[in-house]
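lol ok so funny story. i was supposed to be doing the assay writeup but got distracted and ended up predicting the structure for this chain instead. priorities right. anyway since i did it might as well share w the group, maybe its usefull for someone
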Amino acid sequence: MKVVIDSNIVIDVLEKREPFFEKSYAVIQLCANKTIDGYVCAGSITDIYYIIRKNMADNSKAKEAIIRLGELVGVCDTMANDIAAAHALDMSDFEDAVLAATSKREKADYIVTRNKRDFKGSPVPAVEPEELLALCAKK
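and the output, tada:
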């Protein structure tokens, strides 16, 4: 199973945000264990770095967290065609539309997010961490 992970899941893990940490961490563990193929969009990496850097006293810790993330999940590039495809989607948030368009081109089975409602109109179904964990448990 191939999934693209929204930045909110990664930030939950890196910042140990409660009450989301446990389920989001379980998603990353599935990737680390190669149970699923997990990816983060390249554009999400810069957003994640920006957010976690603000909450860390040392920039090197934020960079280290991004490097470690890259060891656990793949990174998918966003292409010019993804931007054009995102404009055509009936989605209210452009950043989410870009993630959805990239996920479609990457032939992802799911987008894992805590903001499932923001992905109405996505060509790739969005699931919350709990849903993904249940899907993986059935296999």
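Residues 34 and 72 are 9 Å apart (CA to CA). The chain has a mean pLDDT of 95.
back to the writeup now i swear
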